[in-house]
Amino acid sequence: MSKVITERDGRVFVITINRPEVRNCIDGETASLLERAWKEFRDDDELWVAILTGAGDLSFCAGADLKSLDSLGPGPDAPAHARRRFITDGPGFIGYTRQTDIMKPILAAVNGYALAGGLELACLADIRVAAENAEFGVTCRKWNVPLVDGGTQRLPRIVGMGFAMELILTGRVIGAEEARRIGLANEIVPRGQALARARELAAALCELPQGAMRTDKQAAVMGFGRPLAEGLRIEAEVGADAIGGRAIREGAAAFVEKRKPRYTHDD
Questions:
Q1: Per the confidence metrics, is the pTM higher than 0.90?
Q2: Which of 107, 52, 105 is nearest to 214 (CA)?
Q3: Paired strand residues for 143
Q4: Which among 23, 32, 112, 144 could disulfide-bond with 62, CB atoms 3.0 to 4.6 Å apart, if both were Cys?
Q5: CA dist 129 to 113, 122, 125, 126, 160, Å?
Q6: 111-136 pLDDT tens trace
Q7: How far is CA 179 from the centre of its chain?
Q8: Residue 20 class from Cβ within 10 Å (0-12 exposed, 13-18 middle, 19+ buried)?
Q9: Among positive and negative, which fits the CA dihedral 231, 249, 42, 16?
Q10: What torsion, rounded to 10 degrees, do the Cα atoms 125, 214, 216, 250 define?
């Protein structure tokens, strides 16, 4: 059985980390399969929404597999310059985590532990659905393992610098309710229902026109943390195509005519 399972459900692409026996930790093979899956989603125009989850109902992902640490990245025997180049320019240690080029919606069905690198994977998503037994934390703090798969950058953007620094510095583990309170979890569902709920959300997103959704995501991602004037410039630039497209005219016409919009797959 593959360590990463992918499923096409209409226009929804479900990526499942399939190592429940080790709490869905990531070794080198799993990381390569995740990178391949993310790029498949990115490049396939027939796929509109991705869902990332873990097998079983105990763990989403408990981070890097420390027993197979040497299998991640170029390996300990690689020259120092190769290791540094991988860290700065590579795809990420636990998959395609350093990507900034997927503007399609990404959901995470957090069905249990999201720890260390697993928390970083959850932060890849635009929306996180957490099972009531989900737990989040930078537990790699105890073992002198740094966050190098986007955690120091994405987590503050999601929950704010204060909460992020507390989690990053202390390694404290929080439950689903606290995660929702600080904005890390968007909603909480009963144990075992995170993926089902994420599928519902994904289906709803697929009913919407995709063009403006993607440009709005791009503008939000690119403009975050920049001066307002620069953010507004980015918003205008990336939204120009949507403003000039057929979909906006169809949406306006449908509103005026009090009917459901008729979008094409290109909208």
A1: yes
A2: 105
A3: none
A4: 23
A5: 13, 10, 10, 10, 19
A6: 999 999 999 999 999 999 999 999 99
A7: 16
A8: middle
A9: positive
A10: -140
One-letter identity of residue 18: N
Q: Where are the alpha helices (DSSP H) in 171-245?
A: 176-182, 194-206, 210-223, 228-243
Strands 135-137 and 174-175, how do they pair?
antiparallel
pLDDT in the model for residue 54: 98
DSSP string over 95-119: SSTT-----S-EEEEE-SEEETHHH
Strand partners, 7: 14
Query: Dihedrals φ, ψ of 57, to 5°?
Result: -120, 20
| Cβ proximity of 133 and 174 under 8 Å | no
Helix (H) or strand (E) holding 152: helix 151-159
Q: Collapsing DSSP states into helix, strand and coil, what is residue 149? A: coil
182, two tokens: 């600080």
Decide: 12 and 199 in contact? Cβ < 8 Å: yes
Averaged pLDDT score across all residues of the chain: 92
Query: Could you give the C-alpha distances from 238 to 45, 212, 241, in angstroms and in order?
Result: 19, 9, 7
**What is residue 120's three-state secondary structure?**
helix
Does 265 score more than 60 pLDDT? no
